[in-house]
Structures are given as C-alpha cells and as structure tokens.
Design a protein that fits this description.
The chain is an alpha+beta fold. The protein folds into two domains: 160 residues, no CATH class; 51 residues. 39% of the residues lie in helices and 28% in strands. The protein is built from five helices and nine strands. It has a five-stranded antiparallel β-sheet with strand order 1-2-3-4-5. Strands 8-7-6-9 form a four-stranded mixed β-sheet.
Length: 231
C-alpha cells in the first residue's frame, strides 16, 4: 500500500510540474514552440556516458567507467566459465550435440550480453567544429553528407539550444518474501538538441543526475548556446 501511495505521489508531482512549467521563462519564442515531453525510452538508472572535449574543436560522449565495468563483469564471468569447463570437456571428448554443447550456451549468452551492452553505449556521439557537424554513429559524415536530413545528425550552426528533461521510470521488483512485488522507480535524465526550426534531436539519456547536468552545461558552453533545463 505504501509503495503504491509513493508511486501515485511521484505521478502527481510530475503532472503538477508539467502543468506549472512555463517555457516563456527562457525568454525565447523557440522555447514556446517546441515539445517539452521526453523522447527517449531509456531505462538506465546510472551514468552511462561522460563528455570528453578538447575545449576547442571537438566534444564527444564516451562510455563511462560504469558501462565498461558492468560489461567486463559479464564478459569475465563468461570467459572464466569457459576456461574452467572447456579443458574438462575436451579431455572427456567434446560432443557436438545439444547435450554436449549445453554447458557452453550459458557463458556464450552471458558474454554476448556484455559485448552488446558495451557496443550499444560505445556508439560515437560527436560534436565537431572542424566539420561543423553533430552525429551519432560510427560513420563520420563528410562534405557530401546532407546533415539536415540525417535522423541522428545536424549542422552545428543549426543548434539553437540544449534541452535537459527528466522522466520518472517505474519498475516492478519482488519483495524480500518473494510473495509479492513492489513498484519502485528512479529518474532518467534526457539531453536533446533544439534546432532553429524548432525540431529536436535526441542526444542521450541516463540516470546520472549530477553528471548529466555537468556535461550538459559544459556542452552548452562549448557550442555557445543556452541550456534549457527542466529537472
């Protein structure tokens, strides 16, 4: 009952803030034109990225130590399991049947999840003044690329402001007795670009409040645009 009440209070608080929020406080007509709802459905409850910049020409979001550590745990457990079991299986004669390969399915899946998680959060998120471009992805745009038409890209000169939002993410978790579940949650912080025409481009989202605020402020200063934070 208490968890349900807390959940209802979080929802009511979020609705109240949305109703009270007035974008005119930013004293910019574009702020009154854009949508102030979150874009991402990210459910990560910890810091996944860190802004790295040379202070002059390039700023890039890179995976945090949390992501690397978490991924290496999965990969390490899988490798350790294989190191332990593989010599025994080879000594007994490895059988390429379902039963014979069954001991290796778990570590392969476990290690695969670690690799996927690391690759997912290692996708380059770059702001480059030399090329005049923002992009997300491993392929760097060249002078032939139409940045305006890219889903995950934009010309730096078209960036009007940065938008920082938060969303309360609810999740179900089992109680200590295992007989019931409680609903708990956390805030996810989302950073978006606001272009001069009022469209938004999603940059990233994660659960590290302080880190996201610091990175957003540093990026806004790097780009020379205002930060519109509603968190």
């Amino acid at each position: 009952m208490f968890d349900k009440l807390k959940d209802a209070m979080h929802q009511a608080s979020g609705m109240a803030k949305a109703m009270k929020f007035d974008p005119s406080k930013f004293n910019d007509p574009v702020a009154e034109q854009i949508d102030w709802r979150t874009i991402s459905r990210s459910s990560t409850n910890f810091k996944t990225h860190k802004l790295v910049t040379d202070g002059v020409n390039r700023a890039e979001f890179k995976p945090s130590l949390n992501v690397i550590f978490f991924s290496l745990i999965f990969i390490g457990v899988a490798v350790g399991f294989l190191i332990y079991w593989l010599p025994q299986e080879l000594e007994q004669g490895l059988s390429f049947t379902v039963d014979g390969l069954m001991p290796f399915i778990f570590p392969l899946i476990f290690g695969g999840l670690g690799v996927i998680f690391l690759l997912k959060h290692s996708t380059p998120i770059v702001f480059d003044k030399l090329t005049g471009a923002f992009w997300k992805g491993k392929k760097e745009p060249d002078h032939h690329t139409n940045l305006s038409s890219m889903k995950n890209g934009a010309p730096l000169e078209e960036i009007h402001a940065l938008q920082l939002l938060r969303r309360y993410n609810r999740k179900n978790s089992s109680s200590s007795s295992g007989s019931s579940s409680s609903r708990r949650g956390y805030y996810v912080y989302e950073l978006n670009l606001v272009l001069k025409d009022g469209t938004r481009k999603h940059v990233l989202a994660h659960g590290g409040r302080g880190a996201m605020h610091d990175d957003a402020s540093e990026l806004a200063e790097f780009l020379g645009v205002p930060l519109w934070a509603v968190t």
